[in-house]
Amino acid sequence: MKYVGIIGAGTMGIGIAQVAATNGCKVWVYDANAKQVETATVGLEKTLTKLVDKQKISAEKMTEILANISIATELKDFKDCELIIEAIIENKEIKTKVFTELENYVSESCVLSSNTSSISITSLGAELKKPERFIGIHFFNPAPLMPLVEVIPSLLTEKTLAEKIYNLMKEWGKTPVIAKDIPGFIVNRIARPYYGEALRIVEENIATPEQVDEAMKTLGNFKMGPFELMDLIGVDVNFAVTTTVYKDYFYDPKYKPSLLQQRMSEAKLHGRKTGKGFYDYSEGAEKPIPQKDDALYQQIFLRIISMLINEAVEAKRLGVANDEDIELAMQKGVNYPKGLLSWGKEIGYAKISETLQNLYEEYQEERYRQSPLLRKL
Fold first, then answer.
1. In the annotation, is 286 catalytic?
2. Which helix (DSSP H) or strand (DSSP E) does residue 217 occupy?
3. 86 included as an active-site residue
4. Ramachandran sector of residue 81 (left: φ over 0; alpha: ψ -120 to 50; beta: rest)
């Protein structure tokens, strides 16, 4: 697949275009907002120039990458593409409309895919004339740097297509994993408690955002705390993914969104991109120093890590992916310091089970129910 179309010229779309072009593909990029494509290509040129300056790539390679990328002015320009990856707004109706229109222009053999992080691949593909050629290809932000790609076949996807895309992603230098088409796939399902439980702890005035972040970084060796990470991802984006997963799991209390996060989304306190989120990123603003409390930090860490390990165990039980891919996905997709299944063994599954049982008894909420498999490990 050497002819690739990218729909959406946001950070993710242009990042995927860069990955494909770097690996010798001819890439066409389309965005409904024509100015966005121009802005994105100018930004890409600046990014590549920095890589040349740092001697990460040669000037010749930069020229080659840019030469491999063309601007598409309409969807008809994708007529020769062998693979199209959509990376637009997380809205099922808008995505479906784009795909149904695309089918009028592309060949019978062209593979259509979505980079969605949480919308059902089966539901997106079901509207197509040829749903068997549709698949999920979920990159992580920033696409050129993050190695993980989740490959998600739908119930209607042709049986050999997942393996073909898996091998293509390997050719592109990525670390692919194959996931079941369930809400959140592997990473966004298992990672929900990293944010959700952290938000709950702050909502209950048990600790401050900076204390939670410090606890997870010092005791768990996470590169970023939950609140730093939400500010980086975008508080609004994180909230939208949580809301989608919650709805798609028929309002399972385990994935219930946070009222605090909703209010911050409404207030446009979205994090780094708006200059303020859980932290202030305006010029001269100082990051608050957390009040250190070893006992509290231990409580925070054990509570959040137990929830994460429980999710990983449940994903294993349900066959969302094999053990190796579950471990790989969390390390390569969200930079977790260890695989959660092996972390559970290290802490002791009995300790994780006890922690969740105590939380369940304290709160009387289904949120803290254990995976049936956890008690058996």
1. no
2. helix 209-220
3. no
4. beta
